[in-house]
Amino acid sequence: MEKKQAREMGAFxxxxxxxxxxxxxxxxxxxxxxxxxxxxxxxLGELLDRxxxxxxxxxxAVVWELSELHGRFVIVCRVVWKDGxxxxxxxxxxxxxxxxxxxxxxxxxxxxxxxxxxxxxxxxNCLCVACEDDDAxxxxxxxxxxxxxxxxxxxxxGY
Length: 159
Prior knowledge:
The protein is α+β, with helices and mostly antiparallel strands. It has five helices and five strands, in the order H-E-E-H-E-E-E-H-H-H. The chain has a three-stranded antiparallel beta sheet with strand order 3-4-5. Strands 1-2 form a two-stranded antiparallel sheet. Residues 134-153 have low confidence and may be disordered.
């Protein structure tokens, strides 16, 4: 038991160093829809490019899993150290998918967009990195809305 605790302590000490190297991210992509509605967001690829060097330097990997919880699909993100110790995890439900279409995208594009959205926000949550919430602006100019994080859920497997 003491060996496991020492390993976990080492992993968390390394993770603290990673977090000290990470900076908050800004929005780098814009979407302008018909009807004048537009929004900005942080691209997942850009986010990964910014965080991977610090993660790699301290021997961490990010892994995502598509899982099911209470009849809903969720994306689970984990930050794992070289020995397998999970130092952070977050889950986000896959919402807004229309099986029959009817949205602005075909059903498979909607699934892909929802998964990418969940991956982006679970990673931000795991790393304690902030960016402006791209959806809250359309709902309300309230600063409290801009700082929302994804819904965190827990199941019997610990995530």
